[in-house]
Amino acid sequence: MLGNEFDPRDLISGPWRACPACGKDKFGVINIGGSRLTRRCRDCWHGQEYRLPELRKKIIYLDQFVVSNLMKLENRAIKGHANVAADPFWRELHDLLFQLIHLQMICCPDSGSHEEESRIAPFNPELKKTYEALSGGITFKAFDSIKSNQIAELATAWAEEREPSFDFESKKVLSRNPNEWNERFYVVVGDNPFISPAELRRVRTELHANIARLFRDVWGKEKQSFEYWYELERKGFQGHLLNAAATHKRERAKVISAFKPGEEPSLEALDKLLPSFPERIIEGIESIMRFPRGGGLRSPEEQAELVRSFLSKNRTAEAPFVKLQSLLFAAIAVRAERGQKEPPNQGTATDIDTLSHLLPFCDAMFMDNGCRSLLQNIPGKLRPPETAKVYSPNVKAEFLNYLRSIRDGISAEHVQAIREVYGAAHLGGVPSAQGQ
Fold this sequence. Notes:
By secondary structure, the chain is of the alpha/beta class. The protein is built from 16 helices and 8 strands. The chain folds into 2 domains: 1-51; 57-236 and 313-436, no CATH class. Helix content is 50%, strand content 8%.
């Protein structure tokens, strides 16, 4: 025999109960799916399904620096371990987060920002393992998808002559429903082969250089109000989008005209042959204006007028992600105008991208101090109420208290369900569960 034979009974595990059919204490858990638990007896194979309480997990986003420190905490051989381990906050945070994850009370999804920042770091495998352990394999959809959905809602509302209504239900932007009971395992894949660390570094460096130039040559020299920079950023997004779409079209035409039969095109040329994100956005707007949701088809003249009026009114400036990123860049502009010498660091652009797309979908975010301070610099009348959900090391005690409040709110029904599904060990260290 080349190996051990597979025994399906090995898929059954504790906590064990008395089997309703044969009476033996071998009635274990074989499957956890959605809001249902399936038990089966290892001896007589009797099976039974149970309904579990509905969950409403808190969605908590952890910035890359948090992932990095939690990774260092658990890896003694990695540089920086001693400094992180010396601060009791990180051990307490680690234990609280995983306790709440095991209690099915929070979900800490990972994102494209985690993946990209980890790919250019020296410890990518360890970082990937850490953010996937926190997320359980649940990932925020690409930021471009969030952009597309918000602009599509603006276009649809315009065509239907109504006010836009944005849906910030977190499960709409996650790879799967976070409010399901966790299985005992999750499936992840390796690194995305289409992501090039060298290209990520190039783009990151180029973007930082552009922001530094604006900081030095524009924001630092022009004496303007916060509101001025905010409106300039917000209303300028659509122009950048249209210009980028036009540039990609010209580049595609050049690639096609330069193509010679028998020659194999380069990967760069092939990339330019595909529609770019800005082009897909414009095409999406045109499609929405062409096809009403109730069915039918608008005339080319009606479609053209709807597209023209939508763009002339600059409706994309009302997208929530556009407003948030514009507020954050306006805060940087005012800092430059007030004499700050050093431009933002390379990670700031990623933080702004992450905040502007994910903040409305999260119950809390733990970001770095610089990122949170930008939010605090937004004037009160413009500051979104969601900014109160953003924590940082400067208010780390408040974040720990927030997590404890989630744990202390566990219900008796939830405690009993945890015992049935995972066993009493999951309830260790939960004060309100003792004696229940």
